[in-house]
Amino acid sequence: MDTGDRLLTPGEVAALFRVDPKTVTRWAAAGRIGSIRTPGGHRRFRESEVRALLEGEGMLDEVDDMGKPRNAGPAASTGPGPANAGMY
Amino acid sequence: MDTGDRLLTPGEVAALFRVDPKTVTRWAAAGRIGSIRTPGGHRRFRESEVRALLEGEGMLDEVDDMGKPRNAGPAASTGPGPANAGMY
DNA sequence: CCCCATTAGGGTAATTCGGGAA
DNA sequence: GGTGTCCGAATTACCCTAATGG
User: Fold this and answer.
1) What residue numbers bound the domain in which A40 lies?
2) pTM, to two decimals
């Protein structure tokens, strides 16, 4: 099923994370986030991947104690998946 | 669905509370406030949650319960949003 | 074809992180 | 128990100009 592979621009991702578009570009350059390059060299990011990152991206299954239930995280799409997470 | 709240940087939250950014970081580490991490490891806080904390609406019960929990809710994480405990 | 907003790239300053000690 | 400050290191933000996208 479609994971919602809508492509987002660096500016969109930057607004979601409250960071500078340049920072998003740096993440892609560092391989922290999957990126698709246009023939011209510009980057595009997958909406599903960005969303997973925002939510805490976890492959951890965790339920809420209050509020509403939340379905499991979406399967990775075409990216290398959980390439790297947590490296400081 | 979307809370539609902006994300604040530790410095912003620190200025709101008149405390050190380091203190805000400790609150997040202690799970007293929800936090979203950037792929780089930096923290972002929800404007709505910070506002609620400033108003004092975050916790309606902070009486003596250090030894016997009553029903004060098991320390939700992000509050209105999906729970996600940061950890890396 | 031209127009305008956004993005890429490099470089430098400011902020944040993490742990430890006051 | 909680907060403010120190340190080194990493990450992020803003400066610029040129190219890409629509």
Assistant:
1) 7-55
2) 0.72
